[in-house]
């Protein structure tokens, strides 16, 4: 570890001790940074320091595998059999522990992607591994034609832990699926069923409103709610009845009418570039939905389950701004495929036997794992720790913005979901970070997205910011 990194670490860590809760009504903290060099510590005027600076910033510790490497041979052998739907670098990941992962060449990476906000408990959680082993010996799958020992307890835990927060106080029942997109599909179906059966409803009450810059999934219903030409155009025509409004634009809510059966929104847009909904907007949205008896769906697939520093991101909104349906996935299984839609009793009464189903959803293996994950993520101590670590990120990223004003234009986020807005295409920074041992991903337009495991340690946050500093400096 460099002397400069040690200095930056100490300064930011000391600053974190002076964190005070913000007066705002959404997740946020104030951090009082003293006028210090912090991440500017390497800006020494001496020739020797400048030389060391250049070496430090441009040192590539994790070069991508060469053409004659084990990784390249593996890819050449198996890539011809895989349908190409992702652009990937040439490394092959093999194992992980905590917030670090290793490729087959033995290179170590600090992971600030968490499998796209999935691995909340990091890699190699020993208790989770034990649960997987024990449950796989007992029963992996049985189908929803019968009860099993873990789906019911998971549903109860989700409802009870939610009711114990400032979040969805109408939470009543849960449908368990296999993924986030499927959870959203279920939510949209439930909302349409409710709309047709509601007072003043009928066959014309089927429209769904979603928001530009959102991402709700890739299956046809959730894709229809994702107004991005990149995702939608190749698969048109989509499901009819979807209309779109602008995020955080109260004046644009007139798109919601008596024919609207549902509005689906992310309290924090992740894929769209890490944008946080304002309390005023969400409150106005809830009011508008009530006026036309439309179901309000909060998609917390990426921002929920502790990612914001709350169990649910919408806890930061006023009490009157709560959803009728809450969807979740990603962190729910810490890598085991599972999603869920939690509904109010009013919505539950509209859903009858045979209206929806799933073959694999709610299997005892996935639900037992999810029970363990939810129990761990929902403790007060765990969530307070996320909020504390959020301020290390906020301080460090804001200092990067100050240091590179010609590159970094804005820092957005809360908890452990952050967007670093650049004034240029971000892949060069992502690549430079990877070559220095840090994995980050992109989002929206020219945004670097940071979503580390929620168990990330303070020293790992500081190390990651230092590598990101080097990556930007290398451009």
The outline comes out as globular
What percent strand?
Answer: 15-25%
Summarize the main sheet.
7 strands, mixed
In order across it, which strands form the biggest sheet? 6-14-13-12-9-7-8
Mean pLDDT: 90
Uncertain segments are 1-10, 12-45
Specify the oligomeric state.
Answer: single chain
> Roughly how much helix do the residues carry, as a percent range?
25-40%
Number of strands: 19
CATH-derived architecture of the largest domain? 3-Layer(aba) Sandwich
Total helical segments = 15
SS-derived structural category: alpha/beta
**CATH-defined topology of the largest domain:** Aspartate Aminotransferase, domain 2
Distance between the termini: 22 Å
What is the count of structural domains? 2
CATH homologous superfamily grouping of the largest domain:
Type I PLP-dependent aspartate aminotransferase-like (Major domain)
Subcellular location: Mitochondrion
EC number: 2.6.1.11
Organism: Lipomyces tetrasporus
Pathway: Amino-acid biosynthesis; L-arginine biosynthesis; N(2)-acetyl-L-ornithine from L-glutamate: step 4/4
């Amino acid at each position: 570890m460099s002397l400069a990194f040690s200095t930056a670490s100490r300064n930011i860590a000391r600053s974190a001790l002076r964190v005070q809760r913000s007066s705002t009504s959404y997740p946020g903290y104030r951090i009082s940074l003293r006028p210090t060099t912090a991440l500017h510590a390497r800006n020494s005027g001496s020739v020797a320091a400048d030389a060391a600076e250049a070496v430090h910033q441009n040192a590539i510790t994790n070069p991508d595998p060469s053409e004659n490497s084990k990784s390249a041979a593996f890819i050449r052998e198996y890539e011809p059999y895989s349908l190409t739907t992702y652009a990937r670098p040439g490394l092959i990941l093999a194992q992980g522990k905590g917030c670090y992962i290793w490729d087959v060449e033995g290179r170590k990476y600090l992971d600030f992607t968490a499998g796209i906000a999935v691995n909340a408990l990091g890699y190699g959680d020993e208790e989770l591994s034990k649960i997987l082993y024990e449950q796989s010996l007992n029963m992996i799958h049985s189908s929803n034609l019968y009860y099993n020992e873990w789906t019911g307890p998971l549903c109860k835990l989700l409802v009870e832990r939610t009711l114990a927060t400032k979040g969805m106080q109408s939470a009543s029942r849960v449908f368990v699926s296999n993924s986030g997109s499927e959870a959203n599909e279920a939510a949209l179906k439930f909302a349409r069923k409710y709309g047709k059966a509601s007072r003043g409803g009928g066959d014309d009450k089927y429209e769904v409103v979603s928001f530009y810059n959102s991402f709700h999934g890739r299956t046809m219903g959730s894709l229809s709610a994702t107004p991005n030409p990149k995702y939608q155009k190749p698969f048109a025509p989509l499901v009819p009845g979807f209309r779109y409004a602008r995020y955080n634009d109260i004046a644009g809510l007139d798109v919601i009418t008596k024919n609207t059966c549902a509005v689906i929104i992310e309290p924090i847009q992740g894929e769209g570039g890490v944008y946080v909904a304002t309390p005023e907007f969400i409150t106005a949205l809830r009011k508008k939905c009530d006026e036309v008896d439309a179901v309000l769906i909060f998609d917390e697939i990426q921002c929920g389950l502790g990612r914001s520093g709350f169990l649910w991101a919408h806890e930061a909104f006023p009490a009157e701004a709560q959803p009728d349906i809450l969807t979740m996935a990603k962190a729910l299984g810490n890598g085991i495929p599972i999603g869920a839609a939690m509904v109010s009793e009013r919505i539950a009464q509209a859903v009858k036997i045979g209206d929806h189903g799933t073959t694999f959803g709610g299997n005892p293996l996935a639900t037992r794992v999810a029970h363990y994950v939810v129990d761990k993520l929902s403790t007060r101590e765990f969530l307070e720790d996320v909020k504390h670590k959020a301020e290390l990120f906020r301080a460090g990223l804001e200092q990067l913005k100050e240091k590179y004003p010609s590159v970094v234009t804005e820092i957005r986020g809360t908890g452990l979901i952050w967007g670093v807005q650049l004034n240029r295409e971000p892949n060069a920074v992502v690549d430079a970070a990877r070559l220095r041992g840090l994995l980050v991903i992109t989002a929206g337009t020219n945004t670097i997205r940071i979503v580390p495991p929620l168990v990330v340690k303070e020293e790992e946050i500081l190390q990651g910011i230092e590598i990101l500093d080097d990556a930007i400096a290398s451009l």
